[in-house]
Amino acid sequence: MRYQITGKQIDIGEALQTHVKSELGETVEKYAQRPTDAAVIFSRVGHEYFCEATIHLSTGLTAAAKGHAGEIY
Known about the structure:
It is built from one helix and four strands. The chain is an alpha+beta fold. It has a four-stranded mixed beta sheet with strand order 1-2-3-4, with helices on one face. The longest helix is centred in the first third of the chain and has 18 residues, at 14-31. It starts with a strand and ends with a strand.
C-alpha cells in the first residue's frame, strides 16, 4: 500500500509516519484485503490536532475518516 502522510503547517517526523503506517496498515488489512493507497493529513488548530485519512480500496470504494485529539499520536 502506498502512503502519503503530510502536515498542514506542522512537521511530520519519521516516528509519526512509522506509527501511522503500522497502525493504519494493520487496521485496514483486517477489514479490506487489498487497499491501494492512503492519504493522511495532519493539522493543528490551537491546542488540538486534527487528522483526515482517505483510503482507496481495490474494489473502487473510498473510505474516509476524521478525528481530533489533544496530542498527535
